[in-house]
Amino acid sequence: MSQVRQRQGGDNKLKVGEKTIHEEKRKESKTPNEDEETKKKVVVSPGRDKQISNAVLFFLTVSSFITRFWNIGYPAEVVFDEVHFGKFASYYLQRTYYFDVHPPLAKLMFAGVGWLLGYDGHYLFENIGEDYIKNNVPYIGLRILPATLGALLVPIAYLIMIESGYPIITAAFAAGLVLFDNALITQTRLILLDAMLVFFMLCTLYSYIRFYKLRLREFTLDWWFWLVVTGVSLSLTTSVKMVGLFTFATIGVAVLVDLWELLDIQRGLTMRQFRRHFFARSIGLIFTPLAIYLFWFYLHFAILNTSGPGDDFMSPEFQETLHGNIMTFQSHDIRFNDTITIKHKDTSVFLHSHLDKYPLRYDDGRISSQGQQITGYPHEDSNNYWRVKPAIPFFDQERPENDVIKHGDYILLEHVNSLSHLLTHDVASPLMPTNQEFTTISVDDDSRYNETMFQVLIVNGEPDTKWRTKASHFRLVHYDTKVALWTHDAPLPDWAYKQQEVNGNKNNLEKSNYWFANEIIGKNVTEDVQPKKPTRELAFLRKFVELQRLMISHNSGLTKPHPYSTGPINWPFLVRGISFWTKDSTREQIYLLGNPFTWWIGVGALAVFVGVTAADAVSRRRGILPIIDPVRNRLYNSAGFFFIGWFFHYIPFFLMGRSLFLHHYLPAVICSYLLAAAVFNFMFVNSINYPISASATKKKITRVVLTAGVGVMTILFGIALLGIASVFYIFFAPLTYGTPGLDVSGVLNRKWLETWDFHFAK
Amino acid sequence: MASNKYTERGVINSLPYSGEQGTTTSLTFGDIRYRKSKHPYKDFQETQIYDLQEEPYRKSTKTVLGLPRRDARIIAGLMLLASIVRLYRISEPTSVVFDEVHFGGFASKYIKGRFFMDVHPPLAKLLITLAGVIGGFDGNFDFKEIGKDYLEPKVPYVTMRLMPGILGIFVIPISYLTIKLAGFSTISASLVATLLIFENGLVAQSRLILLDSPLILFTAFTVLMWVNFHNHYRRPFSFWWWFWMAMTGVGLGLTVSVKWVGLFTIALIGLSTIKGLWDLLGDLRISPEVWAKHFLARALCLILIPTVIYMFMFAIHFLILTNSGDGDGFMSSEFQQTIGGHGMDDTPIDIAYGSKITIRHLNTQGGYLHSHDHSYPGGSKQQQITLYPHKDENNLWIINNKTKPEIPFDEQDPIWIENGAIIRLEHITTNKRLHSHEVRPPVTDVDYQNEVSGYGFPGFEGDDNDFWRVEIFDHEKSDPKSGERLRTLHTKFRLVHVLTGCYLFSHSVKLPEWGFEQQEVTCVKGGSVPKTIWYIETNSHPTLPLDAETVNYRKLGFFGKFFELQRVMWTTNNGLTDSHPYESRPLSWLLMKRGISFWGQDHHHIYLIGNPIIWWSSTAALAIFVAIEIIILLRAKRGYLDHLNVTKEFYESHASFLFIGWFLHWFPFILMSRQLFLHHYFPALYFAILLFGVVFDFFTTPLSTRKRASVALIYLVMVLYVFRLFSPLTYGRPWIKSDCNSLKWISTWDFDCNQFYNSYDQFSIDADLKALKISPTGESSSLTVLNSPDSSEKSEAAETHAMQDDSNDALML
């Protein structure tokens, strides 16, 4: 026996009441039940096992490809979110910059397939139901990619269960549940991201299990290999959708539990050894994924080098890095005495004034200055025109009258239509007692000149940065009181025609204080043509951070309700689906709906698992040990791992404010299938294959302590359940594949729940 | 939790049973101390606990009211000190401060019995009302805005302020006893109590008509009772065991009856109870029957008692509020039937052509479909159609069929109105017909909405735009007939405008003054379904026999009303998402980055801000506790048996209870999206300060009593000094600009120094002027900055309600 084994020598003690992942190792010595268990009939010998397993795997894989690829060219129309993801693939091929809340990997993959097929990205997938053939899009090729990955989910699920030490029937049960799930089929045979997401997620689980089984061969090549593969798959998952962070949490918890055990003094590791473990995992599971995640963004920026629909989301600096961007030819230097319009960056309103005054007294009794109103107004109007004049005390006489304005210059803004200067003073604004009121004062009145001076502070500006239209975001800070010109999305009452309130923000550094000059009035675009600037370069990391931040803020901003969005509580029970596509003439429709039988098995398994563990905890507390240790450990460690996977891929959605859909549950539903198989095993299979971890040495030793005893009845029962699942699958197949069309009674027959809002039910 | 690790079957079995079935907890069993120690195990905790019921202890000490004389003296001293600090010049300011706007206002509504809606349960408001009644308040003051004068209308505001003020004082002895009875030193207990006295924020908050002072008191009371209960852990089912547990339940009931924040206190006691039951479960000498008894006892005391108290408070609430008031609109029609002035007589159930009916909108509380002899100023300039919440002749309509001329209904048998029937509605008092056309509505000027108006003149038979089709949407399940034809109350229907296909619709958008601020009625295409649903409330028909079947609203009993009110409170509470100038987020509370401006007038200013020293050291105590816990955990894992140190474990168990208490009163706020304020942190602050006391006790254990006292004293001097510095903001006392500016230690503390004069002389001049009855001249512009509606739940529900409705509109369209 190796050193590692020896280290375990004195550690045969039972440890009850806490989760012991490392239990298995210790149990290599004889357990009290062992004799009894090994006597149980072993249905097949290990050698034949392998052959049967391969045969089953082959059969499942072939069935999986058939179910996913059947009639994949139908419908030859844009379905549901293909609108987005097809479009993004086109943007890549056209190299035009776009913005999306999801990381780029999956979309890059689509673009890659499109490129291989010679598609040039001419079609923009504008509306659901548009014809692909007419538009000459190789949509089948694009769909083959997710369908392939979707088909591979079945064999991976099978292998996960086999690697976790379950018998063939259990593994086949898990794979069968995945195979017959209508929702997974629908979602993975269209140009959508979820196939990639779930595929990489399952790869992560699989490789982590492989890694964990090698834990007694620490720091060997195999060990490192699977550690890094886990990290890579994690990273790929996250590079498809941010949901990958939930996979991170799942693996993270497992790793923390593992490290916590390693830290235990009874494991006998020195702090030095422990640190090695710790750093190995940080390299494998933090740094590798980070590098890969960054790489996709690098590719993203490298490909998208032309101005496109995503420009407006980005900062001016970023936009200038794109070919043909508006900044590069519509941006002009602003000179003194130019007349400009000023637009607020966040709320896109113009700084506006009109001849009406603030009312003497507001509804809450506070008093105003009764000066001319300053508001934010979203439309073009001559009341948005402001002439920029130099502030005399600060104006260097040497400079020409119409010199360009630079960062830090002091200016006055003259409202052209009312011939008055913008002013702010220590009076509370109409809506916010904490902020200062803005108003104007006649140009002839010099008595309050100090209160009309403002400093132009360009974002990221140097002393010689020129103030330019569109390209420069700036803050306008008051000379006298240091407040910044600010506006927010709050309409004033009727006396200001419900226009937006403008006031002075005392915290003048806030990002919401950013404005930009929209255009110079009267300046002909062709006039003042500058030599075409070279497009600007920006460091990759800066671009990355900017984009990442925008993705997160826009993702949480996706709160616009959608007719088919549902709350997470509905998902496990399959309360409602999503209508993807309909065709009136043939009464065909695609409706995303899981296989009710398998989904409800999944929920049932969760309930059983929670019930069993709770009952076990209570009875242990009372000194009763109802489950033999190897089986119990498998239940806690393996099924527990799947449960954590389900938990982390499901519960965080409750905390999200954005609109959510049934397909967000797909990663969790797969976890619930794995758990269902584990529970199936717990209920119907006698014991488990045990132990399954590789021993510390390469030397082959017979160390099988337990082999699962699978009875004929169990196999029949498992196959019967899958048989029922397949019947359900076929029954709902018309909604999954969108063909054939159903008559009214056909639709109504399938409408088991009032809330399944199929089309053509009347 | 630490003990669980060692609780394993082998050990338990190997222990000799002591024989006292069910009298001790399991905590000690399976403890590593049993295995490692060669000496007989002695539970230090047992001896350290300060237990009034411990017989020998009682004999050895002279007591006053059951308290050792020394403690009684200290408590008396502390209470005296607290009374001085908390009640100092409680009559100032003599005008409405901050949320007194609401809570004073509620008191006057209670006195008048006018139904109102508030997001908080009634207890504290009832107490304030009680104080008002005692002071002779007649309810004729509306507390409408901050800064409104109390003296002129002779409001007994001092009595009303004394109620939270005095309740606040009792927090001091309770905190002292909590620390003391948990087994810590007298010095720590006194320290904690003194800190609570000199916490500027608590002082400012507890001397005004606000709810937080009772809330903190009841939370503190609950914790003290729970500590007492735990001191009787080893004597289950004894009288005092029952008593303290029942009192804990009472405390929980009172806390949650003040504010829903009390639910966090319930969560704390709940978690602690679960932990206790789990420990008992592990004690194999306790039979399942006895365990079940334990379980039921806790369910009785900690679930049933609080629920009964909470409901009792609402029973009083309903008993007092019998008259119609501004809260009616939030409630359903069934609920409104129970409020005075809203009752309705039974009305015939069958609707036929020729019925005179009133029609109500189901989804908003806007009221009846209404018209009056005024026209829209814009659009078609035809007669207005609105929703009007009160009973009125102008709500009456006659249902006619589409034929012209109309059938004389009073001469033949009634013809029922089936689903799909096409009808015309004629307004009785003005003889106009309900009409719609392709004109944009007056307020909601959008493409998919059409104006609805009253149209017609004598001799004109009307046109096709007067036709509406009845679509039955839902009906009372017990009355199948109401699904086929219109029946009063039971049928919920939509009205489709036949020519344009739009639905009669209303939403909580008010018409301007020309429409008397009644609710807008439009006709919408594809709008939100719930807002297009109507029902008939009253009905009369000339040919219906007198004994025709009648119907009335379902009678709501107490529980019906109770649950409905809870639901409305919940949605309203969640709807309080407007931003407020002084709101702050939970993370900023830890460091007290910002306070709340309560009041400002005549160069005086009240700003809610805590004593920074106390605040920051309590936060530091939290951090230290977490750090120590982590270190202990890691060391234990590496084999250092810190846990053998019983004293440490004793501290740990108490500190973790307080820490969890703090956590449960703070963390949930992070998940809330409603507007939050610094004062929401006060219950958590109470736990943090207690924890500070425990941490102080822990670190000064090695010191002699004298040294320990001097450390505490030095710290207290600092606290006092800082309290004195900030006291002008706490009490609204005269202050000067330079002093004020020098206290802006953090740039985000936005008390307004510009309000103050440059020197104190100015105040005496003001006083002289006042004496001469000349009002002081203020600089108006700076004053306007602060006379602001600083109230947290200003205009309360009414606005949020409207807002919610609007967002719903957008949602469905």
From TrEMBL, chain A:
Keywords of this entry: Endoplasmic reticulum, Glycosyltransferase, Membrane, Repeat, Transferase, Transmembrane, Transmembrane helix
Location in the cell: Endoplasmic reticulum membrane
Gene Ontology molecular function: any one: dolichyl-phosphate-mannose-protein mannosyltransferase activity
Gene Ontology CC: endoplasmic reticulum membrane
Compositionally biased spans, kind Basic and acidic residues: 8-40
Membrane topology: Multi-pass membrane protein
InterPro entries in UniProt: ArnT-like_N (IPR003342), MIR_dom_sf (IPR036300), MIR_motif (IPR016093), PMT-like (IPR027005), PMT_4TMC (IPR032421)
EC number, UniProt record: 2.4.1.109
Pathway annotation: Protein modification; protein glycosylation
Ranges for domain MIR: 331-391, 462-520
Endoplasmic reticulum in keyword set: yes
Membrane spanning stretches: 55-73, 105-125, 137-160, 166-184, 191-212, 224-257, 278-299, 597-615, 635-653, 665-684, 704-732
Pfam families xref list: MIR, PMT, PMT_4TMC
Enzyme class: transferase
Record family assignment: Belongs to the glycosyltransferase 39 family.
Identification of the protein by name: Dolichyl-phosphate-mannose--protein mannosyltransferase
Provenance organism: Ambispora gerdemannii
Automatic annotation (TrEMBL), chain B:
Localisation per UniProt entry: Endoplasmic reticulum membrane
A GO CC term attached to the entry: dolichyl-phosphate-mannose-protein mannosyltransferase complex
Region Disordered, residue ranges: 779-813
Regions of compositional bias (Basic and acidic residues) in chain numbering: 791-804
Membrane-spanning parts: 123-143, 155-175, 181-198, 210-229, 241-274, 295-320, 613-634, 655-672, 678-699, 711-731
Chief location bin: endoplasmic reticulum
Superkingdom of the source species: Eukaryota
Bilayer topology term: Multi-pass membrane protein
Cited PROSITE patterns: MIR (PS50919)
Primary enzyme class: transferase
Domain MIR: 348-402, 414-473, 483-539
Reaction equations catalysed: a di-trans,poly-cis-dolichyl beta-D-mannosyl phosphate + L-threonyl-[protein] = 3-O-(alpha-D-mannosyl)-L-threonyl-[protein] + a di-trans,poly-cis-dolichyl phosphate + H(+); a di-trans,poly-cis-dolichyl beta-D-mannosyl phosphate + L-seryl-[protein] = 3-O-(alpha-D-mannosyl)-L-seryl-[protein] + a di-trans,poly-cis-dolichyl phosphate + H(+)
Enzyme Commission identifier(s): 2.4.1.109
Pfam families to which the protein is assigned, alphabetical: MIR, PMT, PMT_4TMC
Family: Belongs to the glycosyltransferase 39 family.
Purpose of the protein: Transfers mannose from Dol-P-mannose to Ser or Thr residues on proteins.
Name of the molecule in the record: Dolichyl-phosphate-mannose--protein mannosyltransferase
